[in-house]
Structure formats: structure tokens, C-alpha cells
Design brief:
Number of domains: 1
Protein name: Twin-arginine translocation pathway signal protein
Distance between the termini: 60 Å
Strand content: 5-15%
Organism: Parafrankia soli
InterPro entries: DUF1501, TAT_signal
CATH superfamily: Alkaline Phosphatase, subunit A
Number of helices: 13
Order of helices and strands: HHHEEHEEHEHHEEHHHEHEEEEHH
CATH architecture: 3-Layer(aba) Sandwich
Length: about 450
């Protein structure tokens, strides 16, 4: 029996409650196939690249208080030799594995926000990462902070008749969007195998693109899927969202395929990993993070109409034998970020790109008995790019006044977010952060 549209959507398993968070609406296939060419992001438009370090990066061995005797006393053999670090200022230095970032510091393009965290810290990976990605420390929010930014833009588009910078008219002249006004699935992209909660709004979501290449089905199968995903006035709201989610596959593939067609081949064994790749590898070309940022660089240079990109590197949960693992991961981070920054500095659109690097928490001040460190609290947030004003922002947490062995938070992470929302994405921070609290804006932009 032929597969009907209704049977297909039911069989897909996404027509239940989960479809409420499904795809972000859809433009016509003809309009989206040439998105980068037909409605390129204007040069000078702010772009945010979010780099997540999963596992809890050791901030004290990233931005090192190398002149503080309490640091060497607490860290013992985990403290790098003083001649090997890259001195910055105020008795702080970058880790030996970060020479590229040290160069950006000298150029005034690296900002270090110190002591960043959230109220009443939690040592759980899951809870802490949920807080960072939702920007909701005191409530169990189901939407990410960039997702809520997408919601706000979609609502604005619905009020004005379509996404800024591009038409939503389909081939017959009607609106091609499916939900939240003219929601555009290209506005926020996660480069990697999964879509992080960061990009999930209440009504709108971003899209995910794997680094191993991305092509939508073609031929007869592609034609059949187009028919099954086509909007139908008879659909229930959930079925309509499921169809929009499937159509987004073709949306993203059509827009990015020309951009990524010349991407270099990478070792298939590292595609989609979040663990930093081969444990025996050095920093090299940045590993999987380097592959992700290479894709971001190509998309930005080509003018893909994306304002936020999410990339990630994992493996930072260094409870044992931290020295080698952390050095390797920081080497990959350094190589990937440095190459990305250099590529952006060479293109007009790159002049408006800001990159933020964060982790869910830092590590405890004292090393443990296994040559590692345990879950902590505050840590540094790094920002780099042509728009960035380099230097230190926020107070350095003291090592002699700890909170039960943890660093005290001196900068609320929402101050970083508020600054990025307003000065990169051009959106009132309160619309997204939804809090009555006032978060001081920081002068790194």
C-alpha cells in the first residue's frame, strides 16, 4: 500500500509532544537552495560563534595565577614550570599549550573574563551545563538562551511579514513558513552530530550539520520526501511541525552544499566525536574542533545567513592524569581558534565575528590524589575576534578565600550573555534572559 503523508509522519515517531520542539519552519525549496547567494548575510553583520568545552575545563591551568604561592602549593606537580607559561598581566599567564592565544592577547584581540559562574554552584555536569545553555540558574527552563533569541526574531518576523534580509515567498507567492512567523532554520547552526539545548527555543530551533559531509536525499527518494514534507492545510499542528522539521533537512543541505563542496577530506574516524579525537594526538590542526571551525569559516565567508554557530570540544573531565590530557586538549583548542581567527581576519565578513569559549564549571583548587582535579565552580570565559577589546574583565577569584575548597564566583555568566546579545546580536538582553536582575554589561566589546 502506498505510504500516505499521514502514515509517514506517524511512523516517523515525531508527531507526539516532542514535535513541539521540532524544526524551525521552512522556506520554499527553490528559495533555500541558493540561500547563500540569494540572501547573503550583509558584511558587517554581527556573528557569534559559541565554543563549548564539555567536561569542566580546568580554568586554573588555562589562565594560570603562576605568581601566587597558593597556586603552586595547591596544584603541586600539576602546576607547569614558570618558564613554560605565556605571561599576560596581573600575575596571570596562559598555559604552555596556548601560544596562539597568547599572540592574540598581544594583538589586543583576546579578552579573559575572570571568575565566571552562576549563583549557588552545582558540581553536576548535567545541571551545570543545563544552566549555562538555558541561562536559567534557578528554574528548570526547557529553552536555550539562543533558542529564545530565535523565538524573539521569529515573533518579530511574524509581525513584519518575514525574516529580515530575505523573502519567505514560495514559488506561488504565498508564505512558506510553518511556525513562529517566518522562522529561518539557517539563523543558528550547530556544527556536529547533535543539536545542543542552547539552540532550542520554545517555538523555534536551530539546525545541526555534521562535519563528515551533508547531503539531502536525491532522486526518487528525495522527490517522495519533498512531497511528504510539503505543508498541508489538513495537518494537525503537531503533524505540521513534524513536516517542517523534515523539510529543514533539505533547507540546510540546499544552502550549505555549495559552500562545503570543496571542504577537505578528514579522517572518518574522528567525525562527530566530542572527546577530542585521538588521545595520542597533539594539537595539530585542531582535531575535530578544527574541522567544525573550518566549516564555520567557509559558511561565514560565503555569506550564509547565519548569525550564531555552535561548536564543541569534549574530554575535559580530568579526574586523573590531567597533565597530558589537558595539554593535548588545550593544544587542539589553541590550533583551532588561532587558525579560525586568522581566516576571519582575512575576509570582510570576518571583521564582525566574535567567538566565546566557555565550560560548565572549573575544577577544584587543590589537585586530587590521582594526578587530576575534581569538579569545581568558577572559571574563565575567553572571547576573541576583531570586534573584541582585549584584556581582563571581572575580578580574579582569590585562592586564599575559598568556598569549601572552590573558587568564589565573581562574575555572573549572564553578564557575558547580555553583552553578546546586545552588542553582537543587536537584541535587548532582557527579552532573552527574562530576569528582573540587572547584569552589568562588560567592556570587552
Amino acid at each position: 500500500m502506498p505510504l500516505s503523508r499521514r502514515r509517514f509522519l506517524i511512523a516517523s515517531g515525531v508527531t507526539g509532544a516532542g514535535a513541539l520542539a521540532a524544526g524551525a519552519g521552512v522556506l520554499s525549496w527553490d528559495a533555500l537552495h541558493g540561500a547563500a547567494a540569494d540572501r547573503p548575510l550583509a558584511a558587517g553583520t554581527g556573528v557569534l560563534v559559541v565554543v563549548t568545552l564539555y567536561g569542566g575545563n580546568d580554568g586554573l591551568n588555562t589562565v594560570i595565577p603562576f605568581q601566587d604561592p597558593a597556586y603552586r602549593q595547591a596544584r603541586g606537580d600539576l602546576a607547569p614550570a614558570e618558564p613554560d607559561v605565556h605571561p599576560l598581566a596581573d600575575g596571570l599567564a596562559l598555559a604552555p599549550a596556548l601560544p596562539g592565544l597568547a599572540g592574540l592577547w598581544k594583538e589586543g584581540r583576546l579578552a579573559v573574563v575572570r571568575g565566571v559562574g552562576y549563583p549557588e554552584p552545582d558540581h553536576s555536569h548535567f545541571r551545570s551545563m543545563a544552566i549555562w545553555q538555558t541561562a536559567s540558574p534557578r528554574t528548570a527552563s526547557t529553552s536555550g538562551w539562543i533558542g529564545r533569541w530565535l523565538d524573539a526574531l521569529a515573533a518579530k518576523d511574524g509581525a513584519t511579514g518575514g525574516p529580515a534580509g530575505g523573502s519567505t515567498a514560495g514559488p506561488t507567492g504565498g508564505s512558506a513558513g510553518g511556525q513562529a512567523g517566518g522562522a529561518d532554520p539557517l539563523r543558528a547552526l550547530a556544527i556536529g552530530p547533535t543539536l545542543p539545548p542552547l539552540l532550542v527555543g520554545d517555538h523555534t530551533v536551530g539546525s545541526a550539520v555534521p562535519t563528515g559531509g551533508f547531503a539531502a536525499p536525491s532522486g526518487r527518494l528525495g522527490a517522495d520526501l519533498h512531497a511528504l514534507y510539503r505543508p498541508d492545510p489538513a495537518d494537525s499542528p503537531l503533524a505540521a511541525r513534524a513536516a517542517a522539521s523534515g523539510a529543514d533537512l533539505f533547507t540546510v543541505a540546499g544552502a550549505l552544499a555549495p559552500v562545503l563542496a570543496d571542504a577537505p577530506e578528514r579522517d572518518a574516524g574522528t567525525q562527530g566525536q566530542l572527546d577530542g579525537g585521538d588521545p595520542g594526538a597533539g594539537g595539530g590542526d585542531g582535531g575535530e574542533l578544527g574541522a567544525q571551525l573550518d566549516m564555520v569559516a567557509r559558511a561565514i565567508t560565503a555569506g550564509v545567513p547565519t548569525r550564531v554557530y555552535s561548536v564543541s570540544l569534549g574530554g575535559f573531565d580530568t579526574h586523573a592524569a590531567e597533565d597530558g590530557t589537558h595539554t593535548r586538549l588545550l593544544g587542539q583548542l589553541d590550533a583551532a581558534l588561532t587558525r579560525f581567527h586568522r581566516s576571519m581576519a582575512a575576509t570582510p565578513r570576518g571583521s564582525a565575528v566574535t567567538t566565546m569559549v566557555y565550560s560548565e564549571f572549573g575544577r577544584r583548587v587543590a589537585a586530587n590524589a590521582s594526578g587530576g582535579t575534581d569538579h569545581g565552580t568558577a572559571g574563565p570565559v575567553l572571547l576573541l575576534g576583531r570586534p573584541v577589546r582585549g584584556g581582563f574583565f571581572g575580578d580574579q577569584p582569590p585562592l586564599t578565600d575559598l568556598d569549601d575548597g572552590d573558587l568564589r564566583v565573581t562574575t555572573d555568566f549572564r553578564s557575558v550573555y547580555a553583552t553578546l546579545l546586545e552588542r553582537v546580536l543587536g537584541t535587548e538582553a532582557g527579552t532573552v534572559l527574562g530576569s528582573d536582575e540587572s547584569f552589568p554589561r562588560l567592556a570587552f566589546l
